[in-house]
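Lab meeting, action items carried over

1. Structure of the two-component assembly. Owner: GW. Status: complete.
Input record:
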Amino acid sequence: MNFRMDSYGTIFWLTEKALLVKSELQNLLSNHDIVTVDFENITQITPSCAAMMFSPLVESLGISEFKRRIIFDNIDKEVLSIIRYAVNSRIKFLKDSGKQIKK
Amino acid sequence: MTQTPTQIRIVFPKKVRNFDSVIKQSLNSIDVLKKIDHIIFDMRTLIFLTPSALCPLTAYIHFIKRKFPNKKVTILAPRDFDLQNYLSRMNFFKLLDVDFREVNRCTKNQSFIELTHITKESARGIGFEKNFSDMLEDRLNCNHNFLSSLGFIVGELINNIIDHSESECGGFMCAQMYPAKDILEICFSDFGIGIPASLKNSLALENFDSNEDCEQIDYSLNFGVTSGSGTNKSNTGQGLYFLTKLIKENKGRMKIFSNNGMILINKNEHKFESLKSPWIGTTIMFELNLNNPISNSFLDLPKDANVDYYIDF
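Predicted assembly:
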């Protein structure tokens, strides 16, 4: 299943919009095994936005299932770097707070 | 026994340059506000007002109108024609439902960003960030690194208002460029619970032993400090951290007023002050030097950050 991020805009600064994306991704994942997230035209994302969109999915699926079921396509290097950074910061925060994350 | 309606008139001086003056003019105690029936904001002799004063003033009047809908609020507009026109173009009258007939509005070559009301609803709009980013690009004559870093920080500060402030009526922001001085001034203001209260409601202050609001505000500038409270528990606590980094690299200036504390960052120096008239929410104002462009895009910073990588993409 292909999901185009630019259906929600090309710049993602705000977590309110990230919440909408997260819900849509959760819906798609409940009906499809693999979801390809197409980042074409996405130029900016904030760490809070990235964490809001993807960290809950890492938390619920676990690290290896997340990597198997969610594929990033057409992603800009800077945007990928921020997502990687934000999700890992969040995992660290959760681990430091005593929460276990499935591998 | 019938009570006589109480009326209070807040008379503005000729020039209001900063937030400190607004705070002195305001009645920031809910208990005091409750006892007043009619508040008059008398701006008739005002001839000059900076964005750093305009933004919290707007947030303050908006808060009163929203929190106490039965109170009468009168705004007596400045007599000065230029200031009237400026306030109108900044959307001050429109946002506060004041009837005012604007003479003209030309958005071309505009060196400011109008007062913007930040709410959850407005943040959900598909075009919100793009419009804002375009405004920054069109109106503020800055280089690409500067603009992308600024957009990144503006986004995170808006997230703080929406996700952490717990403000019933959102917040406000505006910006003004001063081409002659090569300075960009930006201000955010809300009437939420404030940074110290937000941190106290979470575990963020668990390992921090000061009860002073200004020291807690200073602590909130560190990497990864987040209350994780409010509606969004996924915040990463980086908005104020990156803003502080930007201010220091740019040799700019920033002031944060929240609850009973104020912190000023001027170049690399941090100064604290306890406020005699506390501010209910949070006001953040900063000045950036446009003639001192930053060397790298702040979007590159994650590459250098010391984060353990549990997952790679």
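2. GW to write a short summary for the group page. Key points so far: The longest strand of chain B covers residues 269-289. The beta strands of chain B are 7-11, 15-16, 38-42, 48-49, 72-76, 112-118, 171-178, 183-190, 253-266, 269-289.
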